[in-house]
Amino acid sequence: MIPFVREGTCEECGRQYTVSGASINPGTETEAPAGFRCDCGGWTSVFIPGSVNTEKLVVTPKVVA
């Protein structure tokens, strides 16, 4: 399994998130969008590899200095 990191931005408030996980077949699969609910109630979506178990994704707010 190969780790990956994607970044997404909330469509409503602009808050940025980092989404990380592991891909079983990197480089040989199609990526698809996955949506996540922001703290404000809006949506953030990122493209993730198709072999990823979405239940094991880690979604964390990005710290902006």
List the helices and strands and how they pair.
Blueprint: E1 2-9, E2 16-23, E3 31-37, E4 43-49, E5 58-61
Antiparallel strand pairs: 1-2, 2-5, 3-4
Instruction: Give me the count of strands.
Output: 5
The secondary structure category is: mainly beta
Shape: elongated
Rg, nearest Å? 12 Å
Strand content: over 45%
Helix count?
0
The main pleated sheet reads as: 3 strands, antiparallel
Physical arrangement of strands within the biggest beta sheet: 1-2-5
Mean pLDDT: 88
Q: How many structurally independent domains? A: 1
> Which spans have pLDDT < 50 for at least 5 consecutive residues?
none
Helix-residue proportion? under 10%
Q: What is the terminal-to-terminal distance?
A: 32 Å
H-E order: EEEEE
